[in-house]
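To assess whether the prediction recovers the assembly geometry, we first specified each molecular entity separately, as shown.
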Amino acid sequence: MSEVLVLVDHVDGAVRKPTYEMLALAKKLGEPSAVFIGGSDKADDAVASLKKYGAEKVYVVDDAEIKGYLVAPKAETLQQLVEQASPAAVLVTSSAEGKEIAGRLAIKTESGIITDAVDVEEGPVTTQSVFAGNFTVKSKVTKGTPIIAVKPNAATPEEGDGAGTREDFSPTISDSAKKAKIVASQPRKASGRPELTEAAIVVSGGRGTGGDFDPIEGFADSLGAAVGASRAAVDSGWMPHAFQVGQTGKVVSPQLYVANGISGAIQHRAGMQTSKTIVAVNKDEEAPIFELVDFGVVGDLFDVLPKATEEITKRKG
Amino acid sequence: MRADTNMNIVVCVKYVPDATGDRKFESDNTVDRVGVDGLLSELDEYAVEQSLQLKEKQDDDTTVTALCIGPEGAADAVRKALQMGADKGVHVVDDAIAGSDYLATSKVLAAAVEKIGDADLVVCGMASTDAGGSVVPAMLAERLDLPQVTFGSVIESQGKEFRIKRDGDTATEVIGATAPLVLSVTDQSGEARYPSFKGIMAAKKKPVETWSLSDLGVDAGEVGLDAAWTQVEQADARPPKEAGEIVTDEEGSGADALVGFLASKKFI
Ligand SMILES: Cc1cc2nc3c(=O)[nH]c(=O)nc-3n(C[C@H](O)[C@H](O)[C@H](O)COP(=O)(O)OP(=O)(O)OC[C@H]3O[C@@H](n4cnc5c(N)ncnc54)[C@H](O)[C@@H]3O)c2cc1C
Ligand SMILES: Nc1ncnc2c1ncn2[C@@H]1O[C@H](COP(=O)(O)O)[C@@H](O)[C@H]1O
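The predicted structure of the complete assembly is given in tokenized form:
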């Protein structure tokens, strides 16, 4: 069976959940090989967790020399691994960075690329959701090594020991891959809540909050949810851009999405329409968001959410 | 000192189906680009805006060229960029291009940038509003062997040194590079201007070149649907969603109903 390369998405060695999801998908296509590009002191822990989620092999690439540069060195690394391993496919996270790596790798290896896959089956045949979720598209790569950028929540991580064999790999990085430099980096403060794109439940607030996110955050915490925001809330400076859901923010696909004081503009829908269950609270019964919902409350979020939060806390208590 | 701050800026603008219209697929599973009204991708307006601001900061000899690959109608997108203030337009149109994937699109764009010549900056939007892959800028950088500085929300420059701020997935970063480079900007970079009446009149006199693949020396067999390295096998409209249950809150009934619904779905 051929290898399937999975680029490990991690923060300082801590492997993020979408990687485990990709390992589960990779198993359907061949033998999952994880590619860990990171600090060598962090590698042992990463290898252990990757093994636990099914990695047969883990390529460890020490990033001391390439850490400070944008995507190009990672694309070069993967190119060299593709040449060595002739994998059946390469999977990367469909984040801004992941897609850029995929794009450059596609050109380097003369291969077709598919972004924003929400599922990958044997073939590999991918599923994408396009035009703000109005169409479902199945595609195939017809040339080269399929390079597929996979969205978070595309699969359920599967525990089950892989061999987890560690293989150290030293790529040759060209000078031209080092021309865009990360001059400064300010890690985002941990909110203590789940990561927006990975969360099973997302609770969002819009202009209807009037800038007061307390009811949104309280409700989110009662459900163990991540907090999101519409662009109107972000543009007003109420929430950082990292919380924006929509076409120019994060695209989320949780089990449950709760939109509060959000009208449901097409650009917002583009970021949440594929959520499994959609709930909205809005004062205006004509708000377009109600066209999407499984359940809607016409009402003031400042009445509905605190009371619901109290009730949920009581039930859970 | 002035002369070396002149810049040659190429801004890539895409012509896309109107997102508020009825976007659909053709029988060959390509995006219907003829049956719906199109326009300059809103996200590329930000790229035009940043290009114009750079030009205003530099001196008069800086040129902004709007580059678009698209069908006949796509001339509208080029015109809009000229009305906003770009100096020149290049429209690459060729029947063979229809159905191209990212690889072919980036190839044709790269060839056009090379033909325009001596670009210091290639400016793109953060994503096209139809395909939305956010990959073309990175691919252009790869093809042109230029540094990529992408997803900028704040753009600063001093001569040919560029610094951008970007909101990454896990961190806010400052990226630095020296032109020539490929830059992409987000919708956080600053409102795009509307064409003024003067701008609209002036645009009528601005030069627009129309190039075909042969003008670019790109072989028609390398682009288009048949040459695509990916293939859409199936495109299905999402089944219409069943109307959900909607309740009106009266003295707390809304919260109770909401909690009841969440419990019935096992979210609590
Ligand atoms: C190129 C482009 C990209 C964009 N990208 C995005 C994006 O990524 N994400 C995004 O969200 N938007 C995006 N937008 C903006 C989008 O078009 C809308 O303007 C935006 O989503 C509106 O946000 P909103 O729903 O919070 O505000 P509004 O549309 O103003 O809606 C507020 C809602 O709150 C309700 N409300 C008010 N008070 C209360 C209350 N007390 N209780 C309950 N309900 C109340 C109102 O009835 C109303 O329906 C983009 C736009 C463009 C042009
Ligand atoms: N056909 C095209 N013509 C001109 N520019 C394009 C075209 N396609 C993509 N671009 C540029 O590449 C950016 C990203 O596009 P995409 O990778 O499709 O999301 C856009 O915002 C444009 O600046």
